[in-house]
Write a structure and sequence with these properties.
Blueprint (H helix, E strand, L loop, with lengths): L5 E5 L3 E8 L14 E5 L1 H11 L5 E6 L1 H13 L4 E5 L5 E8 L5 E5 L7 H14 L5 E5 L10 H8 L3 E5 L2 H9 L5 E7 H8 L6 H13 L3 E7 L5 E4 L4 E5 L11 H14 L4 H16 L9 H10 L1 E4 L1
């Protein structure tokens, strides 16, 4: 199926490690089960999801040290095309441990090494050179320590691709408070929306109104707010949709948001409607939470969930 080019950007990637223990108890040595290793970080997972769903995407990723080599090898093992940008320091690891006695999952994320000005320059140059002019550039995940808070704004201002962003913290706050070139799509969850707005949003209508405010202020052409099991909302100048997910057995939330972005981006790249992109995203996220550890959804499972997702205009 024809699609526009997709390039994902991961500024703070990780090698994701997942394992299990009989029970998490402080004090004694906890003997874990066999570990699972996956390439991780927002943009990396978005590219993986696109490829698993039958599309094509290239992952531009900042990597350093032996762990960076491991991450690239893991991507190659999944046949995900990568554009590595060498940076100083060592690529980080993230850990997820599931307590077999309760099913609870403990997720540990360590910060990446501090990047330098030459690292930032190399990344910006590579992104500008590789961004598909008529395609989609997806910036997903955290921004590495040491990069300027306005680094995402620098990227958006320098390219012509349709930009999709899913991030958090100061970089997100800056994009919202000082919008310049509108993003094509911004995805935020309820907690991020509340933090950016500076107040609680107890009702779904509060999130819808806030998303509409961001669109009106020129932050993005489309804003998606995620509400977990309650669904996701997409707002643009012309439409407002909500998509309700099916009820599934939750095993791991790792990568669900990235799978959402990957599926939605692939749908848009295939010229699907925004409402179908929302539905595809919710379906992929639902299929991902059914997987173990750091695994992402499979195309067949996402297709089943797609038929079970309900989209309504609001």
């Amino acid at each position: 199926m024809a699609q526009a080019d997709i390039l994902t950007v991961t500024l703070n990637p990780a090698v994701d490690v997942a394992t299990t223990v009989p029970q998490v108890i402080a004090g004694p040595k906890l003997r874990c089960g066999p570990p699972r290793f996956d390439p991780g970080g927002g943009g990396v997972n978005v590219a993986r999801a696109v490829c698993k769903l039958g599309g094509a995407a290239t992952a531009l990723v900042a990597v350093g040290g032996a762990m960076g080599d491991r991450l690239l090898a893991l991507l190659a093992g999944e046949a995900v095309p990568a554009l590595p940008v060498a940076v100083s320091g060592e690529t980080r690891q993230s850990f997820a441990v599931t307590d077999a006695s309760t099913g609870g999952q403990f997720r540990f994320s360590v910060p990446g090494d501090v990047m330098t000005t030459p690292d930032a320059d190399a990344l910006l140059s590579a992104i500008v050179a590789q961004a598909p002019p008529d395609g989609y550039l997806v910036i997903s995940g955290s921004v590495a320590p040491g990069l300027p808070d306005d680094f995402l704004g620098q990227i958006v201002a320098a390219i012509s691709a349709k930009v999709i962003v899913d991030t958090s913290g100061k970089p997100l706050d800056l994009l919202i408070r000082q919008p310049q070139t509108p993003l094509h799509l911004l995805r935020i969850d309820q907690a991020e929306a509340e933090q950016a707005a500076g107040h609680a949003m107890p009702a779904l209508s509060d999130s819808v109104d806030y998303a509409a405010e961001l669109v009106a202020r020129g932050v993005a052409d489309h804003v998606i707010t995620g509400h977990g099991a309650d669904g996701s909302v997409m707002v643009s100048n012309h439409d407002r949709f909500i998509c309700h997910p099916p009820s599934v057995q939750e095993r791991s939330k790792i990568g669900a948001g990235d799978a959402f972005v990957g599926a939605a981006t692939l749908a848009l790249a295939r010229r699907s409607s925004p409402s179908e992109a929302l539905q595809r995203g919710v379906a992929a996220a639902s299929a991902t939470v059914e997987t173990e550890g750091t695994a992402l959804c499979q195309q067949s499972d996402a297709e089943v969930r797609f038929g079970e997702c309900k989209v309504e205009r609001i």
